[in-house]
Design a protein that fits this description.
mainly alpha; 4 helices; 72% helix
C-alpha cells in the first residue's frame, strides 16, 4: 500500500524545462576554472625558487658551522684577556 502511494507520487512529477544556453554556460564555467588554475610554468618556477632557497640556506648554515671553531678560539682569547674563568668547575678544590 505504501509503495503504491510512493509510485503514484512519482507519476505526478513533471519534466523540468532546461533554460536556454545552459550547456554553453556550463562549458564557459569549466573553461574559466581551467584558465584560473596555475600553469606549469608557474609551478616549475616556484619549485625552482624553493630549491634555490634551500641550497642557499644550507650553504650559509654550513659556512657558519665551519667557522665555529675559529670563533670559539676567539672567544677563549677574549675571555683570557679579561681574566674570566672559562672552566665549568664550580669550586676550586
Amino acid at each position: 500500500m505504501e509503495l503504491e502511494k510512493q509510485i503514484e507520487l512519482l507519476t505526478t512529477v513533471d519534466r523540468v524545462d532546461v533554460p536556454p544556453l545552459l550547456k554553453t554556460r556550463i562549458d564557459a564555467r569549466i573553461r574559466q576554472v581551467a584558465e584560473d588554475s596555475l600553469s606549469n610554468g608557474w609551478v616549475w618556477s616556484f619549485a625552482a625558487t624553493v630549491a634555490l632557497l634551500i641550497v642557499v640556506n644550507s650553504m650559509v648554515f654550513l659556512r657558519v658551522t665551519g667557522e665555529s671553531t675559529s670563533s670559539e678560539s676567539e672567544v677563549y682569547t677574549i675571555t683570557q684577556g679579561m681574566g674570566i674563568n672559562v672552566s665549568n668547575q664550580l669550586y676550586n678544590d
